[in-house]
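Illustration 12: NAD(P)H azoreductase.
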Amino acid sequence: MLLITSVDEYLGHCITSHLSQFHSLRLQIRALIHKTDATAIPSSVLNFSKKGIDVCAVDYMHANDLSKAFRNIEQMILVINGHEDRVQHCQHLCQAAIRSGVRSIVLLSHIGANSEQHIALHDYGCIETYLVQQQQISRQPSFQWTIIRLDWIQQYFHLWACQVESKRTLELPLAYDTGICPVDISDICHVVTSLLTQKKDQNIILVDLDDKHSTQLYTLTGSEPVTSKDLIQILIDATQYNKMTYKLVRPMDTSFYLRNLGHNIWFDERIKKEKSRIFFDDLDNTCAYRQNILNIPSGNNDDFVECYLLTLIRIADVQIQTFLDYFDWVSKTYGSFPIDDIRHLMTGKEPKSIKQYFVENSNSFKPRV
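Figure caption equivalent — predicted structure in token form:
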């Protein structure tokens, strides 16, 4: 079986949705969510359970919970969550995986994992190091790992749609001349699928990773770098509204915007529609998850509250800080650059461009008149 962690958060949810398009895989997937005081499964993942996926609520710090979760598991997709104790969570997951005889772990990390100046990004580096060390300590020749570092995900711009449609302005703590290479969420999911399933039949999960991917570190980026000036021109072309502007803001301004996004009535309306769409999704449409925001930080998101209850504020803090650290990291490293790993892992397919993203979602960014 395949274990996917943090399915109650954006990245884990998207990967599970993508794999669920293959009906025979649904019975081979166990999806982990963070156990809270709430007894019910959050609505954002309840549909997975209805479609035959084994959804388990676990305390990542509780050895007995993890021991049960890893029964009959051969592969794990380790998705790092937004909890303040996420490093410890991942360490416990790695320990439990090795004790339970898991044969391989695919870790989804961050492009800025090597930065020691940014605490939120350094968490990813700590988890990477721990995973490698555990393999060396375990001395299990059959145990394999692959690390995938992700650039900024294009779909994160969903969070700024309300700002653009109301103010005709995109505000980010990103210098005008700094380039980023946003990667599409479905490209990430395609890569993960290609690593863990048979090439000839993606309805079958591999028992072992291909040797050429074992102990490899890949970086997934978009096809080309874009600056803030490029983003505005792409927005203008996609929406056909010429009076779009970009504003360089302080990190604290972006933090304030994201923390208060849940109080925006238009954003709240979108979340409610999305919640309904996720609940009734038949999981056969591979592109449906591309439209979702899910539980990315917002102050008044019912789904988010349902998932995390008392840990809401702390989790939102970590997610927002990761965003801010990324923008500061690219500014100090003179931007991110396209890397061909994604083309190699997608077997020659071209990664989706940021232009495609804004064209696909142009209605969400059109100014209200």
